[in-house]
Amino acid sequence: MVDTSGEDAARSAAALDAAAFTLMSVWSHAHNAPDVPVPSTQLRALFILERGPVNISSLAAGLDALVSSASRLCDRLEAAGLLIRDPGRDRREVTVRLTADGQALLDRLRVRRRAELADVLDAMPAPARAALLWGLAEFHEAASGRDTGGGSFPMLA
Predict the structure, then answer these.
(1) CB 31, CB 118: distance < 8 Å
(2) Contact 112, 30 (CB under 8 A)
(3) Cystine design at 93: which of 22, 36, 88, 131 (Cβ 3.0–4.6 Å)?
(4) Are 109 and 35 spatial neighbours (Cβ–Cβ below 8 Å)?
(5) What residues form DSSP beta bridges with 87?
(6) C-alpha to C-alpha distance for 148 and 75, rounded to whole angstroms
(7) Angle at 44 between CA 38 and CA 14, to 5 degrees
(8) Cα three-residue angle 59-19-145, rounded to 5 degrees
(9) Is 38 helix (H, G, I), strand (E, B) or coil?
């Protein structure tokens, strides 16, 4: 149990860091299943594309990668049938978007993640679960309103 009455920010941050690591382990377990055809970096690209089509430069920025690296990543995702390139009016401007198979993969992963999270939540006492969900909602609100230089933290689904 975390005592927040007089706890300093460093101890609170350490407790949150430990909990976040566990949460991310449960959350990402679904991504490491044998039926997931792509590694985590490519999944990150698919999550970005789920928000809508983008050009390669925007995708690279979202991945914090070089444009050439993002382009090669798109080559692999296109070969796997998970994204499609749409040429623009200008040959230099190519937009990429999810295919139906790419969206189906993300939907399948979302269902699997939520089932694993639900299993953990079901194992918690109801008051602890309610406190956790309230705290996470407050944390989300605080993090979403925070200026990190480029706006809010990127929230991936």
Answers:
(1) no
(2) yes
(3) 88
(4) no
(5) 94
(6) 31
(7) 115
(8) 50
(9) coil
Rounded to two decimals, what is the model's pTM?
0.78
Calculate helix-pair angle for 56-63, 67-79, nearest 10 degrees. Answer: 100
- What residue has token string 């698919």? 46
CB count, 10 Å around CB of 56? 19
* Digitized pLDDT (tens) for each residue of the chain, 157 residues in all: 555 555 588 898 898 899 999 988 988 888 888 888 899 889 999 999 999 999 999 999 999 999 999 999 999 999 999 999 998 777 678 899 999 999 999 999 999 999 999 999 999 999 999 999 999 999 899 988 876 554 444 445 5
As given in the structure block, the two tokens for residue 123 are: 């194992």
